[in-house]
Amino acid sequence: MTTPSHKALVPFVSVDNMMQLVHSIGIETMLRDLADYVEADFKRWELFDKTPRVASHSDVGVIELMPTSDGEAYGFKYVNGHPKNTSEGLQTVTAFGLLADVYTGYPVLLTEMTLLTALRTAATSAVAAKHLAPKGADTMAMIGNGAQSEVQTLAMKAICGLKTVRLFDKDPAATEKCARNLAQAGLNVVRCKSPEEAIEGAQILTTCTADKQSATILTDNMVGAGVHINAIGGDWPGQTELAAGILSRSDVFVEFPPQTRI
Amino acid sequence: MTTPSHKALVPFVSVDNMMQLVHSIGIETMLRDLADYVEADFKRWELFDKTPRVASHSDVGVIELMPTSDGEAYGFKYVNGHPKNTSEGLQTVTAFGLLADVYTGYPVLLTEMTLLTALRTAATSAVAAKHLAPKGADTMAMIGNGAQSEVQTLAMKAICGLKTVRLFDKDPAATEKCARNLAQAGLNVVRCKSPEEAIEGAQILTTCTADKQSATILTDNMVGAGVHINAIGGDWPGQTELAAGILSRSDVFVEFPPQTRI
Question: What ipTM was predicted for this assembly?
Fold first, then answer.
Protein backbone atom coordinates (compact mmCIF):
# COMPACT_ATOMS: atom_id res chain seq x y z
CA MET A 1 0.00 0.00 0.00
CA THR A 2 1.15 3.51 -0.74
CA THR A 3 0.33 6.11 1.90
CA PRO A 4 -3.12 7.53 1.20
CA SER A 5 -3.46 11.20 0.23
CA HIS A 6 -4.35 13.47 3.15
CA LYS A 7 -7.64 14.02 1.33
CA ALA A 8 -8.44 10.32 1.86
CA LEU A 9 -8.52 10.83 5.63
CA VAL A 10 -11.69 12.49 6.89
CA PRO A 11 -11.66 13.87 10.45
CA PHE A 12 -14.43 12.51 12.67
CA VAL A 13 -16.04 14.30 15.62
CA SER A 14 -17.59 11.76 18.00
CA VAL A 15 -20.34 12.39 20.55
CA ASP A 16 -17.64 12.28 23.19
CA ASN A 17 -15.56 14.90 21.30
CA MET A 18 -18.64 17.11 20.93
CA MET A 19 -19.48 16.85 24.63
CA GLN A 20 -15.93 17.87 25.48
CA LEU A 21 -16.26 20.80 23.09
CA VAL A 22 -19.56 21.90 24.63
CA HIS A 23 -18.15 21.60 28.16
CA SER A 24 -14.97 23.46 27.27
CA ILE A 25 -16.75 26.34 25.48
CA GLY A 26 -19.71 26.42 27.86
CA ILE A 27 -23.17 25.57 26.57
CA GLU A 28 -24.60 29.09 26.74
CA THR A 29 -21.63 30.60 24.91
CA MET A 30 -21.86 27.83 22.33
CA LEU A 31 -25.59 28.48 21.83
CA ARG A 32 -24.95 32.22 21.41
CA ASP A 33 -22.18 31.59 18.88
CA LEU A 34 -24.36 29.08 17.01
CA ALA A 35 -27.19 31.62 16.95
CA ASP A 36 -24.85 34.14 15.32
CA TYR A 37 -24.03 31.62 12.56
CA VAL A 38 -27.71 30.74 12.12
CA GLU A 39 -28.60 34.42 11.82
CA ALA A 40 -25.78 35.05 9.34
CA ASP A 41 -26.95 32.11 7.23
CA PHE A 42 -30.54 33.36 7.16
CA LYS A 43 -29.15 36.62 5.77
CA ARG A 44 -27.64 34.75 2.79
CA TRP A 45 -30.58 32.30 2.53
CA GLU A 46 -30.93 32.67 -1.26
CA LEU A 47 -27.44 31.25 -1.79
CA PHE A 48 -28.37 27.83 -0.46
CA ASP A 49 -29.39 24.92 -2.66
CA LYS A 50 -32.42 23.88 -0.62
CA THR A 51 -34.51 20.75 -0.92
CA PRO A 52 -37.19 19.16 1.27
CA ARG A 53 -35.91 16.35 3.47
CA VAL A 54 -35.60 12.94 1.86
CA ALA A 55 -37.60 10.75 4.21
CA SER A 56 -37.99 7.00 4.55
CA HIS A 57 -40.97 6.21 6.77
CA SER A 58 -41.79 3.01 8.63
CA ASP A 59 -44.51 2.12 11.12
CA VAL A 60 -42.27 3.08 14.04
CA GLY A 61 -40.30 6.05 12.80
CA VAL A 62 -38.58 7.93 10.05
CA ILE A 63 -35.05 8.21 8.71
CA GLU A 64 -34.25 11.44 6.90
CA LEU A 65 -31.46 12.93 4.83
CA MET A 66 -31.11 16.71 4.71
CA PRO A 67 -28.69 17.93 2.07
CA THR A 68 -27.79 21.50 1.25
CA SER A 69 -25.00 23.51 -0.36
CA ASP A 70 -23.95 27.14 -0.55
CA GLY A 71 -21.91 26.55 -3.70
CA GLU A 72 -18.63 26.11 -1.80
CA ALA A 73 -19.49 23.70 0.99
CA TYR A 74 -21.94 20.82 0.70
CA GLY A 75 -23.41 19.23 3.77
CA PHE A 76 -26.03 16.73 4.70
CA LYS A 77 -27.44 15.39 7.91
CA TYR A 78 -28.70 11.88 8.59
CA VAL A 79 -31.30 11.91 11.32
CA ASN A 80 -33.89 9.46 12.60
CA GLY A 81 -37.05 10.08 14.60
CA HIS A 82 -38.34 7.11 16.59
CA PRO A 83 -40.59 8.22 19.49
CA LYS A 84 -40.95 4.61 20.72
CA ASN A 85 -37.17 4.33 21.23
CA THR A 86 -37.19 5.96 24.67
CA SER A 87 -39.35 3.11 26.03
CA GLU A 88 -36.59 0.73 24.89
CA GLY A 89 -33.76 2.69 26.48
CA LEU A 90 -32.70 4.27 23.19
CA GLN A 91 -32.76 7.86 21.97
CA THR A 92 -35.65 9.24 19.92
CA VAL A 93 -33.22 11.09 17.67
CA THR A 94 -29.67 10.26 16.59
CA ALA A 95 -27.86 12.12 13.87
CA PHE A 96 -24.60 12.54 12.09
CA GLY A 97 -23.51 14.77 9.27
CA LEU A 98 -20.95 15.23 6.58
CA LEU A 99 -19.32 18.31 5.13
CA ALA A 100 -17.83 18.11 1.63
CA ASP A 101 -15.97 20.36 -0.78
CA VAL A 102 -18.22 21.25 -3.72
CA TYR A 103 -15.22 21.77 -5.99
CA THR A 104 -13.78 18.25 -5.58
CA GLY A 105 -16.76 16.35 -4.18
CA TYR A 106 -14.45 15.03 -1.46
CA PRO A 107 -15.74 14.73 2.11
CA VAL A 108 -13.83 16.97 4.54
CA LEU A 109 -15.55 16.34 7.88
CA LEU A 110 -17.73 13.66 9.45
CA THR A 111 -19.38 14.59 12.72
CA GLU A 112 -21.93 13.41 15.21
CA MET A 113 -25.02 15.60 14.97
CA THR A 114 -27.17 14.18 17.75
CA LEU A 115 -25.92 16.90 20.07
CA LEU A 116 -25.49 19.42 17.26
CA THR A 117 -29.12 18.94 16.19
CA ALA A 118 -30.31 19.70 19.71
CA LEU A 119 -28.08 22.78 19.87
CA ARG A 120 -28.92 24.07 16.40
CA THR A 121 -32.68 23.59 16.89
CA ALA A 122 -32.53 25.48 20.17
CA ALA A 123 -30.35 28.26 18.77
CA THR A 124 -32.67 28.70 15.77
CA SER A 125 -35.75 28.87 18.02
CA ALA A 126 -34.02 31.55 20.06
CA VAL A 127 -33.06 33.55 16.95
CA ALA A 128 -36.71 33.45 15.88
CA ALA A 129 -37.92 34.48 19.35
CA LYS A 130 -35.36 37.29 19.49
CA HIS A 131 -36.93 38.83 16.39
CA LEU A 132 -40.59 37.79 16.83
CA ALA A 133 -41.45 37.46 20.54
CA PRO A 134 -42.95 40.41 22.47
CA LYS A 135 -40.33 42.85 23.74
CA GLY A 136 -39.36 42.07 27.29
CA ALA A 137 -40.71 38.51 27.17
CA ASP A 138 -39.05 36.63 30.03
CA THR A 139 -41.41 33.74 30.81
CA MET A 140 -41.77 30.62 28.69
CA ALA A 141 -44.14 27.66 28.94
CA MET A 142 -42.28 24.52 27.89
CA ILE A 143 -44.72 21.76 26.95
CA GLY A 144 -42.94 18.48 26.38
CA ASN A 145 -40.00 18.01 28.75
CA GLY A 146 -37.73 15.56 26.95
CA ALA A 147 -34.00 16.09 26.42
CA GLN A 148 -34.57 18.80 23.80
CA SER A 149 -36.54 20.99 26.19
CA GLU A 150 -33.49 21.60 28.38
CA VAL A 151 -31.42 22.93 25.51
CA GLN A 152 -34.36 25.00 24.25
CA THR A 153 -34.63 26.64 27.65
CA LEU A 154 -30.91 27.37 27.91
CA ALA A 155 -30.91 28.94 24.44
CA MET A 156 -33.87 31.17 25.34
CA LYS A 157 -31.97 32.25 28.44
CA ALA A 158 -28.65 32.82 26.67
CA ILE A 159 -30.03 34.61 23.61
CA CYS A 160 -33.38 36.14 24.69
CA GLY A 161 -32.86 36.78 28.42
CA LEU A 162 -35.45 34.25 29.63
CA LYS A 163 -35.93 34.33 33.43
CA THR A 164 -38.73 31.82 34.11
CA VAL A 165 -39.62 28.49 32.51
CA ARG A 166 -42.90 26.72 33.30
CA LEU A 167 -42.64 22.99 32.60
CA PHE A 168 -45.36 20.52 31.68
CA ASP A 169 -45.18 16.98 30.31
CA LYS A 170 -47.87 14.29 30.28
CA ASP A 171 -45.16 12.16 31.91
CA PRO A 172 -44.43 13.79 35.34
CA ALA A 173 -41.06 11.97 35.48
CA ALA A 174 -39.93 13.88 32.37
CA THR A 175 -40.84 17.20 34.03
CA GLU A 176 -39.00 16.17 37.18
CA LYS A 177 -35.84 15.23 35.25
CA CYS A 178 -35.89 18.44 33.20
CA ALA A 179 -36.41 20.58 36.32
CA ARG A 180 -33.54 18.81 38.07
CA ASN A 181 -31.20 19.30 35.11
CA LEU A 182 -32.10 23.00 34.91
CA ALA A 183 -31.79 23.57 38.67
CA GLN A 184 -28.32 25.15 38.39
CA ALA A 185 -29.05 27.17 35.25
CA GLY A 186 -29.92 30.41 37.01
CA LEU A 187 -33.59 30.25 35.99
CA ASN A 188 -36.84 30.22 37.91
CA VAL A 189 -38.14 26.71 37.10
CA VAL A 190 -41.83 26.00 37.77
CA ARG A 191 -43.28 22.46 37.58
CA CYS A 192 -46.84 22.51 36.25
CA LYS A 193 -49.62 19.88 36.31
CA SER A 194 -51.41 20.85 33.09
CA PRO A 195 -50.74 22.72 29.84
CA GLU A 196 -53.22 25.35 31.06
CA GLU A 197 -51.15 25.93 34.19
CA ALA A 198 -47.91 26.01 32.20
CA ILE A 199 -49.02 28.83 29.90
CA GLU A 200 -50.13 31.14 32.73
CA GLY A 201 -48.26 34.43 32.37
CA ALA A 202 -46.00 33.10 29.61
CA GLN A 203 -45.26 35.36 26.62
CA ILE A 204 -43.50 32.49 24.85
CA LEU A 205 -45.11 29.06 24.43
CA THR A 206 -42.83 26.26 23.25
CA THR A 207 -44.22 22.89 22.22
CA CYS A 208 -41.55 20.24 22.04
CA THR A 209 -43.15 16.82 21.54
CA ALA A 210 -42.43 13.89 19.23
CA ASP A 211 -45.82 12.16 19.26
CA LYS A 212 -47.31 11.30 15.85
CA GLN A 213 -50.74 10.34 17.24
CA SER A 214 -52.38 13.59 16.10
CA ALA A 215 -52.52 14.87 19.69
CA THR A 216 -53.26 18.58 19.95
CA ILE A 217 -51.10 20.24 22.61
CA LEU A 218 -52.38 23.79 22.35
CA THR A 219 -56.12 24.15 21.72
CA ASP A 220 -57.55 27.28 20.17
CA ASN A 221 -58.97 28.78 23.38
CA MET A 222 -55.65 28.39 25.25
CA VAL A 223 -53.79 30.96 23.19
CA GLY A 224 -54.49 34.67 23.44
CA ALA A 225 -53.25 37.50 21.24
CA GLY A 226 -49.65 38.70 21.41
CA VAL A 227 -47.93 35.52 22.51
CA HIS A 228 -45.06 33.94 20.60
CA ILE A 229 -45.44 30.22 19.88
CA ASN A 230 -42.39 28.15 19.11
CA ALA A 231 -43.74 24.88 17.68
CA ILE A 232 -40.79 22.54 17.33
CA GLY A 233 -42.34 19.09 17.25
CA GLY A 234 -44.85 19.52 14.46
CA ASP A 235 -42.61 18.55 11.60
CA TRP A 236 -44.45 15.55 10.14
CA PRO A 237 -47.99 14.44 9.32
CA GLY A 238 -49.65 13.26 12.55
CA GLN A 239 -47.66 15.73 14.63
CA THR A 240 -50.34 18.30 15.37
CA GLU A 241 -49.12 20.29 18.34
CA LEU A 242 -51.21 23.32 17.44
CA ALA A 243 -54.96 23.48 16.80
CA ALA A 244 -55.61 24.63 13.23
CA GLY A 245 -57.50 27.69 14.52
CA ILE A 246 -54.35 29.04 16.16
CA LEU A 247 -52.46 28.89 12.88
CA SER A 248 -55.21 30.55 10.88
CA ARG A 249 -55.29 33.67 13.09
CA SER A 250 -51.51 33.95 13.61
CA ASP A 251 -48.62 35.39 11.67
CA VAL A 252 -46.75 32.23 10.73
CA PHE A 253 -42.98 32.17 10.13
CA VAL A 254 -41.29 29.06 8.77
CA GLU A 255 -37.80 28.27 7.58
CA PHE A 256 -38.52 26.54 4.27
CA PRO A 257 -42.13 26.54 3.01
CA PRO A 258 -41.83 23.45 0.71
CA GLN A 259 -40.77 21.42 3.76
CA THR A 260 -43.36 22.97 6.06
CA ARG A 261 -46.20 22.19 3.64
CA ILE A 262 -45.33 18.48 3.81
CA MET B 1 -18.50 9.75 31.20
CA THR B 2 -20.41 6.45 31.39
CA THR B 3 -19.40 3.82 28.86
CA PRO B 4 -21.45 4.31 25.68
CA SER B 5 -23.96 1.65 24.63
CA HIS B 6 -22.61 -0.80 22.03
CA LYS B 7 -25.23 0.72 19.72
CA ALA B 8 -23.35 4.02 19.94
CA LEU B 9 -20.32 2.48 18.24
CA VAL B 10 -20.69 2.05 14.48
CA PRO B 11 -18.19 -0.21 12.71
CA PHE B 12 -16.31 1.46 9.84
CA VAL B 13 -14.91 -0.26 6.75
CA SER B 14 -12.10 1.83 5.27
CA VAL B 15 -10.80 1.71 1.69
CA ASP B 16 -7.81 -0.18 3.08
CA ASN B 17 -10.11 -2.72 4.80
CA MET B 18 -12.11 -3.14 1.60
CA MET B 19 -8.96 -3.69 -0.50
CA GLN B 20 -7.84 -6.36 1.96
CA LEU B 21 -11.28 -7.97 1.69
CA VAL B 22 -11.17 -7.94 -2.11
CA HIS B 23 -7.66 -9.40 -2.16
CA SER B 24 -8.48 -12.07 0.39
CA ILE B 25 -11.70 -13.19 -1.35
CA GLY B 26 -10.35 -12.70 -4.88
CA ILE B 27 -11.91 -10.09 -7.13
CA GLU B 28 -13.61 -12.50 -9.54
CA THR B 29 -15.18 -14.50 -6.69
CA MET B 30 -16.27 -11.26 -5.05
CA LEU B 31 -17.86 -10.05 -8.30
CA ARG B 32 -19.68 -13.37 -8.74
CA ASP B 33 -20.97 -13.27 -5.16
CA LEU B 34 -22.03 -9.64 -5.56
CA ALA B 35 -23.82 -10.54 -8.80
CA ASP B 36 -25.81 -13.18 -6.89
CA TYR B 37 -26.92 -10.57 -4.34
CA VAL B 38 -27.78 -8.09 -7.11
CA GLU B 39 -29.84 -10.73 -8.90
CA ALA B 40 -31.62 -11.75 -5.69
CA ASP B 41 -32.46 -8.10 -4.97
CA PHE B 42 -33.89 -7.59 -8.46
CA LYS B 43 -36.20 -10.53 -7.70
CA ARG B 44 -37.60 -8.68 -4.67
CA TRP B 45 -37.47 -5.26 -6.36
CA GLU B 46 -41.01 -4.27 -5.32
CA LEU B 47 -40.04 -4.42 -1.63
CA PHE B 48 -37.63 -1.51 -1.90
CA ASP B 49 -38.53 2.06 -1.04
CA LYS B 50 -37.02 3.65 -4.16
CA THR B 51 -36.42 7.30 -4.91
CA PRO B 52 -34.46 9.14 -7.59
CA ARG B 53 -31.04 10.30 -6.47
CA VAL B 54 -30.88 13.55 -4.53
CA ALA B 55 -28.37 15.56 -6.51
CA SER B 56 -26.55 18.81 -5.86
CA HIS B 57 -24.97 20.09 -9.05
CA SER B 58 -22.18 22.58 -9.50
CA ASP B 59 -20.26 23.77 -12.56
CA VAL B 60 -17.60 21.09 -12.04
CA GLY B 61 -19.51 18.10 -10.75
CA VAL B 62 -22.30 16.60 -8.76
CA ILE B 63 -22.76 15.24 -5.26
CA GLU B 64 -25.55 12.72 -4.85
CA LEU B 65 -27.32 10.88 -2.06
CA MET B 66 -28.97 7.55 -2.88
CA PRO B 67 -31.23 6.28 -0.11
CA THR B 68 -33.28 3.09 -0.10
CA SER B 69 -34.90 0.68 2.33
CA ASP B 70 -36.39 -2.80 2.22
CA GLY B 71 -38.39 -2.23 5.38
CA GLU B 72 -35.78 -3.84 7.65
CA ALA B 73 -32.50 -2.28 6.55
CA TYR B 74 -32.09 1.32 5.42
CA GLY B 75 -29.07 2.35 3.43
CA PHE B 76 -27.80 5.34 1.57
CA LYS B 77 -24.75 6.11 -0.51
CA TYR B 78 -22.95 9.43 -0.79
CA VAL B 79 -21.20 9.68 -4.13
CA ASN B 80 -19.64 12.48 -6.13
CA GLY B 81 -18.91 12.73 -9.84
CA HIS B 82 -16.19 15.21 -10.85
CA PRO B 83 -14.70 14.34 -14.26
CA LYS B 84 -12.14 17.18 -13.94
CA ASN B 85 -10.69 15.63 -10.76
CA THR B 86 -8.40 13.22 -12.60
CA SER B 87 -6.50 16.13 -14.15
CA GLU B 88 -5.80 17.33 -10.58
CA GLY B 89 -4.60 13.95 -9.32
CA LEU B 90 -7.91 13.17 -7.60
CA GLN B 91 -10.53 10.52 -8.26
CA THR B 92 -13.59 11.22 -10.41
CA VAL B 93 -15.77 9.28 -8.00
CA THR B 94 -15.51 8.78 -4.25
CA ALA B 95 -18.26 7.24 -2.19
CA PHE B 96 -19.23 6.01 1.22
CA GLY B 97 -22.39 4.51 2.58
CA LEU B 98 -24.32 3.83 5.71
CA LEU B 99 -26.53 0.96 6.75
CA ALA B 100 -29.13 1.55 9.47
CA ASP B 101 -31.76 -0.43 11.33
CA VAL B 102 -35.24 0.70 10.21
CA TYR B 103 -36.75 -0.38 13.56
CA THR B 104 -34.53 1.88 15.73
CA GLY B 105 -33.18 4.35 13.17
CA TYR B 106 -29.71 3.65 14.53
CA PRO B 107 -26.75 3.38 12.13
CA VAL B 108 -25.18 -0.09 12.16
CA LEU B 109 -22.40 0.16 9.55
CA LEU B 110 -20.40 2.90 7.88
CA THR B 111 -18.34 1.83 4.89
CA GLU B 112 -16.26 3.18 2.07
CA MET B 113 -18.13 2.72 -1.19
CA THR B 114 -15.60 4.02 -3.72
CA LEU B 115 -14.46 0.46 -4.36
CA LEU B 116 -17.90 -1.01 -3.67
CA THR B 117 -19.47 1.29 -6.27
CA ALA B 118 -17.02 0.10 -8.89
CA LEU B 119 -17.67 -3.53 -7.98
CA ARG B 120 -21.45 -3.21 -7.76
CA THR B 121 -21.70 -1.32 -11.06
CA ALA B 122 -19.62 -3.98 -12.79
CA ALA B 123 -21.54 -6.86 -11.22
CA THR B 124 -24.86 -5.31 -12.21
CA SER B 125 -23.69 -4.82 -15.82
CA ALA B 126 -22.68 -8.46 -15.92
CA VAL B 127 -26.03 -9.63 -14.50
CA ALA B 128 -27.78 -7.62 -17.24
CA ALA B 129 -25.48 -9.04 -19.94
CA LYS B 130 -25.98 -12.58 -18.64
CA HIS B 131 -29.71 -12.24 -19.30
CA LEU B 132 -29.72 -9.91 -22.31
CA ALA B 133 -26.54 -10.38 -24.40
CA PRO B 134 -26.50 -12.81 -27.36
CA LYS B 135 -25.85 -16.42 -26.32
CA GLY B 136 -22.16 -17.25 -26.60
CA ALA B 137 -21.06 -13.60 -26.61
CA ASP B 138 -17.37 -13.62 -25.71
CA THR B 139 -15.99 -10.36 -27.15
CA MET B 140 -16.57 -6.91 -25.69
CA ALA B 141 -15.63 -3.46 -26.93
CA MET B 142 -14.76 -1.28 -23.93
CA ILE B 143 -14.96 2.41 -24.83
CA GLY B 144 -13.64 4.58 -22.04
CA ASN B 145 -10.67 2.98 -20.28
CA GLY B 146 -10.64 4.62 -16.85
CA ALA B 147 -10.48 2.71 -13.56
CA GLN B 148 -14.06 1.47 -13.88
CA SER B 149 -13.39 -0.26 -17.19
CA GLU B 150 -11.02 -2.78 -15.59
CA VAL B 151 -13.61 -3.93 -13.08
CA GLN B 152 -16.29 -4.03 -15.81
CA THR B 153 -14.10 -6.32 -17.85
CA LEU B 154 -13.31 -8.65 -14.94
CA ALA B 155 -17.01 -8.92 -14.08
CA MET B 156 -17.88 -9.81 -17.70
CA LYS B 157 -15.21 -12.50 -17.57
CA ALA B 158 -16.24 -13.88 -14.17
CA ILE B 159 -20.00 -13.86 -14.77
CA CYS B 160 -20.49 -14.04 -18.56
CA GLY B 161 -17.41 -15.93 -19.74
CA LEU B 162 -15.84 -13.03 -21.67
CA LYS B 163 -12.69 -14.06 -23.57
CA THR B 164 -11.67 -10.89 -25.51
CA VAL B 165 -11.81 -7.21 -24.63
CA ARG B 166 -11.14 -4.50 -27.24
CA LEU B 167 -10.07 -1.25 -25.60
CA PHE B 168 -10.46 2.31 -26.83
CA ASP B 169 -10.09 5.65 -25.07
CA LYS B 170 -9.57 9.11 -26.55
CA ASP B 171 -6.60 9.23 -24.16
CA PRO B 172 -4.13 6.50 -25.35
CA ALA B 173 -2.45 6.52 -21.92
CA ALA B 174 -5.72 5.36 -20.32
CA THR B 175 -5.91 2.45 -22.78
CA GLU B 176 -2.30 1.56 -22.06
CA LYS B 177 -2.84 1.57 -18.29
CA CYS B 178 -6.01 -0.50 -18.56
CA ALA B 179 -4.33 -3.04 -20.86
CA ARG B 180 -1.39 -3.32 -18.50
CA ASN B 181 -3.63 -3.87 -15.47
CA LEU B 182 -5.62 -6.54 -17.33
CA ALA B 183 -2.52 -8.31 -18.69
CA GLN B 184 -2.63 -11.07 -16.04
CA ALA B 185 -6.41 -11.50 -16.08
CA GLY B 186 -6.47 -14.41 -18.53
CA LEU B 187 -8.13 -12.38 -21.26
CA ASN B 188 -7.22 -11.52 -24.83
CA VAL B 189 -6.69 -7.75 -24.56
CA VAL B 190 -6.70 -5.72 -27.80
CA ARG B 191 -5.67 -2.05 -27.90
CA CYS B 192 -7.67 -0.12 -30.51
CA LYS B 193 -7.12 3.28 -32.12
CA SER B 194 -10.76 4.22 -32.74
CA PRO B 195 -14.23 3.34 -31.51
CA GLU B 196 -14.89 1.79 -34.94
CA GLU B 197 -11.93 -0.54 -34.52
CA ALA B 198 -12.94 -1.40 -30.95
CA ILE B 199 -16.41 -2.61 -31.90
CA GLU B 200 -15.20 -4.96 -34.67
CA GLY B 201 -16.52 -8.46 -33.92
CA ALA B 202 -17.81 -7.46 -30.48
CA GLN B 203 -21.21 -8.79 -29.39
CA ILE B 204 -21.12 -6.59 -26.28
CA LEU B 205 -20.38 -2.85 -26.47
CA THR B 206 -19.68 -1.10 -23.18
CA THR B 207 -19.44 2.69 -22.95
CA CYS B 208 -17.84 3.83 -19.72
CA THR B 209 -17.17 7.56 -19.88
CA ALA B 210 -17.77 10.43 -17.46
CA ASP B 211 -17.79 13.35 -19.89
CA LYS B 212 -20.74 15.75 -19.60
CA GLN B 213 -19.91 17.63 -22.84
CA SER B 214 -22.70 15.95 -24.82
CA ALA B 215 -20.14 13.85 -26.71
CA THR B 216 -21.68 10.95 -28.62
CA ILE B 217 -19.58 7.79 -28.28
CA LEU B 218 -21.63 5.41 -30.39
CA THR B 219 -23.20 6.91 -33.49
CA ASP B 220 -26.23 5.35 -35.12
CA ASN B 221 -24.39 3.74 -38.06
CA MET B 222 -21.83 2.05 -35.78
CA VAL B 223 -24.30 -0.30 -34.16
CA GLY B 224 -25.83 -3.24 -36.01
CA ALA B 225 -28.69 -5.50 -34.94
CA GLY B 226 -28.22 -8.14 -32.24
CA VAL B 227 -25.49 -6.52 -30.17
CA HIS B 228 -25.81 -5.84 -26.48
CA ILE B 229 -24.91 -2.31 -25.38
CA ASN B 230 -23.98 -1.64 -21.80
CA ALA B 231 -24.16 2.15 -21.39
CA ILE B 232 -22.76 2.96 -17.98
CA GLY B 233 -21.73 6.58 -18.19
CA GLY B 234 -24.92 8.17 -19.45
CA ASP B 235 -26.47 8.89 -16.12
CA TRP B 236 -26.85 12.68 -16.23
CA PRO B 237 -27.93 15.40 -18.64
CA GLY B 238 -25.02 16.13 -20.97
CA GLN B 239 -23.79 12.54 -20.82
CA THR B 240 -24.88 11.29 -24.21
CA GLU B 241 -22.86 8.17 -24.92
CA LEU B 242 -25.44 6.78 -27.34
CA ALA B 243 -26.94 8.47 -30.39
CA ALA B 244 -30.69 8.85 -29.93
CA GLY B 245 -31.32 6.70 -33.01
CA ILE B 246 -29.73 3.69 -31.33
CA LEU B 247 -32.09 3.98 -28.38
CA SER B 248 -35.19 4.38 -30.53
CA ARG B 249 -34.63 1.10 -32.41
CA SER B 250 -33.41 -0.94 -29.41
CA ASP B 251 -35.05 -2.83 -26.60
CA VAL B 252 -34.06 -0.66 -23.62
CA PHE B 253 -33.68 -2.07 -20.10
CA VAL B 254 -33.13 0.24 -17.15
CA GLU B 255 -33.02 -0.23 -13.41
CA PHE B 256 -35.32 2.54 -12.19
CA PRO B 257 -37.27 4.50 -14.85
CA PRO B 258 -37.89 7.66 -12.75
CA GLN B 259 -34.11 8.02 -12.38
CA THR B 260 -33.37 7.13 -15.99
CA ARG B 261 -35.82 9.74 -17.28
CA ILE B 262 -33.88 12.47 -15.46
Answer: 0.83
